[in-house]
Design brief:
45% of the residues lie in helices and 10% in strands. The chain is built from 13 helices and five strands. It is rod-shaped and about 120 Å long. 13% of the residues are buried. Residues 68-219 form the Phosducin domain.
Length: 278
């Protein structure tokens, strides 16, 4: 590395002569083309670096700066991915907190994404705004049922106090309202909505979509009596399209299947029947 100790005042002919000697065959290979970056700072304003630049061994100072700038930009691109690639994972609050870090392209994309997220949030809030059973009277019927809203399912239970099956269905309604908060579950004393509505038709459930009746369940026989479970009621309502159940099959087996299974099952013999026959 004796070249590093050369005097800065070396003349150009002497430097060129040295470069010629370096190219001779009897000079070791490692010395024929020495790495200029090991010989000092390539950015330094020295006469030696000027000679190397003229010989094309070192790039010009302008080219070197451009290369360094490109390398820095590439490093930033690799180490810090664009916000456009990550903003989809941000919440609305995070988008606001990082707004100063967005470039012009990011800001346009983020603005569109923010509007999309806001619309989705509003739709979710609108769908999940219920979650409990609403008690109404006849004067509320038009507002709460007929004008409930576009695309909104409404399930109305007409009941009367003192009827056990009505009380059971009201209990199941509370559980289903929490499970399906996008569906409007309401209940009303029968005579407040329909004057002189007969008790023999209770309990009664009406299913509405945008004010139109889509299904109706009238009378105790439809519900199977006091053995009605919440899953069975959920399945029955899902058949009308009002709710989307996760149940894979009807939790209550059809009566025909129950009767058939009872016929096919052998009748157990009574104890001591053999001795009695003897």
């Amino acid at each position: 590395m004796h070249a590093c100790r050369m005097k800065a005042a070396v003349s150009q002919p002497d430097a060129e002569a040295w470069m010629g000697r370096m190219a001779k065959k009897d000079v070791p290979v490692r010395m024929r083309n020495p790495n200029p970056y090991l010989m000092g700072d390539p950015n330094a304003d020295t006469e030696w670096n000027d000679i190397l630049r003229k010989k094309g061994i070192l790039p010009s100072k302008e080219s070197l700066k451009d290369l360094e700038k490109q390398a820095e930009e590439e490093e930033q691109r690799v180490l810090q991915p664009s916000v456009v690639k990550t903003y989809e994972d941000m919440t609305l609050e995070e988008l606001e907190d990082n707004e100063d870090e967005f470039n012009e392209e990011d800001e346009r994309a983020v603005a569109m994404y923010r509007q999309q997220r806001l619309a989705e949030w509003k739709a979710t809030q609108l769908k999940n705004k219920f979650g409990e059973v609403l008690e109404i009277s006849g004067k509320d019927y038009v507002q709460e049922v007929t004008k409930a809203g576009e695309g909104l399912w409404v399930i109305l239970h007409l009941y009367r106090q003192g009827i056990p099956l009505c009380a059971l269905i009201n209990q199941h309604f509370s559980g289903l309202a929490r499970k399906f908060p996008d569906v409007k579950f309401i209940k009303a004393i029968s005579t407040t909505c329909i004057p002189n509505y007969p008790d023999r038709n209770l309990p009664t459930i009406f299913v509405y979509l945008e004010g139109d009746i889509k299904a109706q369940f009238i009378g105790p026989l439809v519900f199977g009596g006091m053995n009605l479970t919440m899953d069975e009621l959920e399945w029955k309502l899902s058949e009308s399209g009002a709710i989307k159940t996760s149940l894979e099959e009807n939790p209550r087996k059809p009566i025909a299947d129950v009767l058939l299974s009872s016929v096919l099952c052998p009748v157990p013999a009574r104890r001591g029947s053999d001795s009695e026959d003897d």
